[in-house]
Amino acid sequence: xxxxxxxxxxxxxxxxxxxxxxxxxxxxxxxxxxxxxxxxxxxxxxxxxxxxxxxxxxxxxxxxxxxxxxxxxxxxxxxxxxxxxxxxxxxxxxxxxxxxxxxxxxxxxxxxxxxxxxxxxxxxxxxxxxxxxxxxxxxxxxxxxxxxxxxxxxxxxxxxxxxxxxxxxxxxxxxxxxxxxxxxxxxxxxxxxxxxxxxxxxxxxxxxxxxxxxxxxxxxxxxxxxxxxxxxxxxxxxxxxxxxxxxxxxxxxxxxxxxxxxxxxxxxxxxxxxxxxxxxxxxxxxxxxxxxxxxxxxxxxxxxxxxxxxxxxxxxxxxxxxxxxxxxxxxxxxxxxxxxxxxxxxxxxxxxxxxxxxxxxxxxxxxxxxxxxxxxxxxxxxxxxxxxxxxxxxxxxxxxxxxxxxxxxxxxxxxxxxxxxxxxxxxxxxxxxxxxxxxxxxxxxxxxxxxxxxxxxxxxxxxxxxxxxxxxxxxxxxxxxxxxxx
Length: 486
Ligand code: FAD
Description:
- This protein is mainly α.
- It folds into three domains: 5-135, Rossmann fold, CATH 3.40.50; 136-174 and 220-304, Serine Threonine Protein Phosphatase 5, Tetratricopeptide repeat; 316-485, DNA Cyclobutane Dipyrimidine Photolyase, subunit A, domain 3.
- 45% of the residues lie in helices and 6% in strands.
- It has a five-stranded parallel β-sheet with strand order 3-2-1-4-5.
- Helix 1 (20-28) links the parallel strand 1 (3-10) and strand 2 (29-36).
- The N and C termini lie far apart (67 Å).
- This is Deoxyribodipyrimidine photo-lyase.
C-alpha cells in the first residue's frame, strides 16, 4: 500500500547511497520531497565550524542534483532555531499535502528532543513520522551486557559488537543501494513561496574557504578516498596511524560525521579487500575496523547516558576537580604559542585547516586538561567550533577520555608528557616544522625543546608556558583529592 506523498528530512545523512530513511520512504511512497533545514543562526551557538558549514553547503549542491535524478526535489528552509522547526515542518507538509515524514535518527539530546516535538505535532495533525537507526552499523541499545545494560568499557563492548556483527548483523550491515528513480514525475514545488522555501537556483556558499577544497564532496571522489585507503593504506594502518607526518589514516571523518558516507559503506569496502580481517586482530585492516567500533561506542554511550550531550562528565566525582581559569594559557593553547612544539604545531594546523590527526588530538587535549588544568568542556567547544569533522559523540568521547572524566578514560595519574610524545611520534620534527615555521632551522636534537638550543635567543618562539613535571604532579594531586583518594 503506497502513501501518496512522503517527505524525507535530511540532517546528518547527506547521501543517497545506503540511506535507510530514503530507501524506506521510496518503498512506501510514490512521490517524495526532500527537505533540509539549515539553522545558520544557531551554527555559531552550536559550535558548527565555518569549515564544516562550508562542507555542508557544498554537499547540498551535490545532493540536490542526485535527488533530482531520482525525481525528488530538494527544498531548503532556513530556520532561526530548533524551536521553530516543528511549526515550519507542519506548514510545509500542509502546503504539499504530505502524509508521512521519514528521517534518520540523530542521537544527541537536543536533536532527539526536537524530533519528539516534531513527531508529536505531526501526529496531532494526522501526519506520520518515522525515524530510523542509520548512523551506526549496530544501533544504540542493541549492544548490551548479559544484564541488558549498556557497556561502559570499550573492550567488552567491542567483543559483543563483533559477536553480533558476526552472527546476526552481517546482512543488515550491508549498504543499501541508491533507490530506483520514482516513476511519478517530481512534485511541483515551484508553487511554494521562494522567499520561504529555497527550491530553485544555486545554493549560496556563505563560507567560501579555499582550504576546504581539500575535501571534495562529489560521490566518486569520496568513494575513491575510501577505496584507495582500503587498497593502499589499510594494511599498514596499525603501524602508521600514530605518525602525523605520514598520510596513514583514511581522512574520512568529515564524511562520516555528516553522513556523506556510512559506516556500513566503510566496512563493506574494507571487507571487499580483506574478507578475513576479523580473524587477524593484530593487523592493519582490523585495527581500522576497531576505530569504526570506537565511533559506534561513543554514539551508543550518548544514547545510554544522555548527560554526555549535556556537558556533564561521565564520572560524577570529576565535577569536584578545581579547574584553573587562565585566559593567557587558554589563548596560548588556542593560538599554538605554548612553547611545546608538538602542541603548537597541532593547534596551528587546526586553525589553518580545520583538521587534526588523532594522536595530536590526544596530546593537545591532555595538555589542555592536565598541564593547564583547564576545563575539558572549553577545549571540547574550541575543537567543535574549528574541526571540519566536528561530531558531538566522538569529540565529547575524545575529550572526556583525555580529561579522565569519561567512561573507560585515561586514568588521571597517567599524564602524557608533550615533549616525549613529540619525540616518539614526530622524531625528526617533520610535522612540527611544517606548522611552526619559526622552528624550521632548529636542529633535530633540539626540535622538541627549542628553548634548550644554544641559539634559542634568536627564535621568535615562546618558552614553555608551564613546567610539565610540576604541572603533572599538580594535576594528579587535584584529581586524587577530588576522588577522595588523598
Ligand atoms: P581513521 O583513523 O581513518 O579512522 C576511521 C574512522 O573511525 C574515522 O574517520 C572516525 O569516524 C572513526 N574514528 C577513528 N578514531 C576514532 C576515535 N578515537 N573515536 C571515535 N571515532 C574514531 N572524531 C570525529 O569524527 N569528530 C570529532 O569531533 C572528534 N573529536 C575528537 C577529539 C579528541 C580530543 C580526540 C582524542 C579524538 C576525536 N575524534 C573525533 C576521533 C579521531 O581523532 C578522528 O575520528 C580521527 O582522527 C579522524 O581521522 P581519520 O578519518 O583519518 O580516521
